[in-house]
Request: fold
Amino acid sequence: MIKLVPRVENSTLMILLSPLLAMTLTALSAYLIFVYILVDIDVSSVFYTLFVEPLRDSYYFSELLVKAAPLMIIGLGLSIGFRAGIWNIGAEGQFVIGGIAGSAVGLYFYNVEAFWILPLMTIAGILGGMFYAGIAAFLRVKYQVNEILVTLMLTYVAVLFLSAMLQGPLRNPSGFNFPESRLFHDSALLPIIWEGTRLHIGLIVAIILSLIAWFGIKKHMFGMQIKISGSAPRAAKFAGFDDNKTVWYSLLISGGLAGLAGIFEAAGPAGQLTPGLPQFYGFTAIIVAFLARLHPVGVLFSALLIALSYVGGENVQIEYNLPSSITQIFQGMLLFYFLACDILIKYKVVLFKTKN
Amino acid sequence: MKYQLEVSNITKSYGDLKANDNVSLNIKSSSIHALLGENGAGKSTLVKIIYGSLAPDSGEMKWADDKYSPKSPFEARENGIAMVFQHFSLFESLTVEENIILGLDSVGLNENFSDEILKYSKQYGLDVNPQQVVGDLSVGARQRVEIIRCLIQNPKLLIMDEPTSVLTPQEVSDLFITLKRLAKDGCAILYISHKLEEVIEICSEATILRDGKLVQSCIPQDHSQKELAEMMIGKKLTELARKNITIGEDIFSINNLSKKSNDIYGVELKNVALKMKKGSIVGIAGVAGNGQDELMELLIGEVTSPAGTLDLNGKDIGHLNSHQRRQLSIFFVPEERLGHGAVPDMSLNENMLLSRPDETEMTKNGVIDWKKVGMHSKDVIEKFDVQTPSSNMLAKSLSGGNLQKFMVGRELIQNPELLIVAQPTWGVDAGSANNIHQALIALADQGSAILIISQDLDEILSLCEQIHVLSEGVLSEAVDMKKDGLEKISQLMVGGEKND
Reply:
């Protein structure tokens, strides 16, 4: 028989080992699934296309970084909120509103060429996301409405709002009625940091933000406030923290960062506002945050891992005609195994014989 | 005389720690046998072994002369061992009858069991109403339900874990009558307690454990309380006495504080008023659930108070949060350790930061100076003798008594002008309690004021010069101990003043 026994101290070894174990189990399960569903295709070559090719080919690698950047930025914000026990699961909606707000600014100054346009768009994007998450904060603080429901529901509203905007005020006047905005001109586009690819400055911003967040969580009372509020609300009051402020901070930060990722996506790889702006980054970032155990620097790495599954998933879709849901299966399994393996940090497995 | 239970040479280790080291204990039938020891002395381990929830590494037990090695509590119950735990396991939304039936394997929920319950109720003076919902019962009544639940199984040995820690003096003497009757009817009782006075009163034998080892088995009446306590902690106890009572000028007052609780099950405070002077120790006695939690929340500043109700040195502090109050040199020790006064999943260092007045320089403009934090927590650990390998240990890994020493120390080290403390020695062993009491006295001798909210009447009586009683949200006037004494307090605790 197997029994789980609580450990006296958290196991440092398992903290390091559990992600690897989860990845191994994911790969193993994926292998079994492929063996079961694939006929006439060599499973190992699918694995190669999925996991190795994106790392070896410089184009695919740049695309991996392009996809990792928004996941990092959103994941950072979520990891801060989740620490406080504030469950913003509507980053997708805040991402879209941020994209719309920033793009609207860019399109408003369509005829102006100036250095300040991009910063202004960025600020608008952040404010857009903050406003959108702020609705949930307001309702939670004022009327005790559950923020999980509000943020999730508002995501659908945001996506519909995007399509309304693209069929109305933000539509390209000379675009044959396609629901797309004008292409942004150069001063509304993010600088490219790797010549010949779509990799933009967002990656650098993400790294800087992660260091700031790391400092805030490790070295500043803000981080303590978030952590204490999340794990012992009464102790937070005892320490003199205002729980309403914690709700506001958590949602405004995660919403603002999701909005930032949104405008970076529009002003980066997309170069315009299209109905295809939302790509589940907001939801996937939840996995990113948890894979990183809500650690602000860890988010950088888990975002890379998840981005790999995005790019690899697209590759097998193209090369082997496999459905795109492969990506989601991977992400789902990874989170599942990861949460399961984390049990081993606090518990150890003991085998014992049953006496009859 | 024959032994109901013989425990011989039991050893049980957890890693390097010997929780029980060659412990023996013999319980005669029809006797009340005390098991004494500090926290961590190995009492719970021994009881768990007797009750079948732990298996010993070595040693053996005999139950009425037969070999006895229970594999589970179920088997222990089958043999006739019953236990009343310190923390009750009753469903608050169910009636007394339903709760009792749920504890029995052989009776269905729809059977009428009231008569059976009433039979035991009468026989042993355990006053309960089978149809009452447990949620409405006082702590004492809940304990009576637990006891009946045990008695229905006709135990030969009843184990009681710290039974009086939550009872009023009247309830305690009722309980003792019950226990004596039970013993007379042939049931042996293993009575776990650290209240030596009680042990001397009702126990015919006592076994004392220290650091997992047997100190001795003795007849408690042959020893003084002080001797028993010293056997328990293995060193001399210091007498509690204030050297230097100089009552100074007014420092703090609560003025007609009324507040409805936000919680529907909370207690409404009505016109609470209290005056404190420098150098005084003021006690608020009362049974739990009479507004203590609500009052503490208001005093800490977790809930704000109306203007003019809390006054520190002429300054209105009702609107300040706890951090702002600490800047004015008021410090707090709440009753609940894990989750209120300390965050279980954070290290002691991190827990230092819950109470961080600016002058400690642990934080500057919000930036944490972890070096300073480490220094302060080391200071607390050393000065207050907190047993822990390092200040990086998680709060929840410390024993209750150790964490309490840490929490009290964290606040005392700031030299508060006013210290407000709830249940300072709740679940703390005699030695540590003695240390904490001394530290409080030393603080008051320096001229600080201390407000103690405690259910432990002995504690209040031995420390406080001014005693109030909180009952149903109403705070009594200070009791004149010389004139009215203990009887008056007892009466106030059960809300008896209304009948006067």
